Amino acid sequence: MKGAITIAEAAATLIADPRPILCLDTCDFLDVVRGFEEDGNNHSAMVHRLVDPLISSANNIQPVITYLVRHEWEQNVDAVGKRASAHLRETDRRIARVLNSCGHVEIQAAEPPANFASLPLVQALVELAERLMDRAMVLERDDPCVERALVRVMERRRPSHQGAIKDSIHLEHYLEFSRRLDQARFSEPRLFVSGNKADFWEGPPRIHRELGGELHAVGLQFLGKLDAALGQLGI
């Protein structure tokens, strides 16, 4: 994975070589692995589109993460992978029960499917998420941003309205990053994507009213789903 750089260095790099920016949350990576557990979750398909070398080169998108995204990924990926593997095993058991019942009533069922639990699916999804992470620009820890995140915790302000600090650390780094670009009249899109409904969303996948003004003031647009972000970027 790439080494982390300061917010100032990241902003200078993109001011010199402008391109659309996609700021990502930890759940955007974890959802690649656990997405098939939910109906309608196509996160792995979206990430596959994003990391495809031809598409990525043609659109010249710059993913951005904070140092904390990488840390949270390393903390959680094993547990998420184990739950995903357990889901595959349970899927196999359910299919086996259905096929068994069909046999008892002489219903001709389709050929039994592959043993999903034996496929290297979970590891392949982990590797897909890490390919996206490897392409990302990593913002190193910025102490003033962390201090502002702590203020959010103390004041119970979103996304720390329930006392957690990590999402506020991500947000403060992205706000500062976008603020510097805005001051330089950076004209390319700056998108922040997070599927964290509890802390960022209000109703449908739109930014909560308590946060919308802050993002708008620095030219940072929020999208709750990666497919919406890719659609807006023409991918």
What characteristic shape results from the CA principal axes? elongated
Oligomer: single chain
> How many H/I helical runs?
11
Number of strands: 5
Helix proportion range: 55-70%
Instruction: State the secondary-structure class.
Output: alpha/beta
| Main sheet properties | 5 strands, parallel
Whole-angstrom Rg = 20 Å
- Roughly what is the average pLDDT, rounded to an integer? 90
Q: Strand order, main sheet: write it out.
A: 3-2-1-4-5
N-to-C terminal Cα separation, in Å? 24 Å
Low-confidence runs of at least 5 consecutive residues: none
Beta-strand share of residues = 5-15%
What is the H-and-E element order? HEHHHEHHEHHEHHEH
Structural write-up:
The chain is α/β, with parallel strands linked by helices and 235 residues long. The protein has helices at 7-16, 26-34, 43-51, 53-59, 67-104, 121-135, 143-155, 166-183, 197-200, 209-217, 226-232; strands at residues 21-24, 62-66, 137-139, 190-193, 221-223. The protein has a 5-stranded parallel β-sheet, sandwiched between helices. 31% of the residues are buried. The mean pLDDT is 90.
Layout of secondary structure:
Layout: H1 7-16, E1 21-24, H2 26-34, H3 43-51, H4 53-59, E2 62-66, H5 67-104, H6 121-135, E3 137-139, H7 143-155, H8 166-183, E4 190-193, H9 197-200, H10 209-217, E5 221-223, H11 226-232
Parallel strand pairs: 1-2, 1-4, 2-3, 4-5
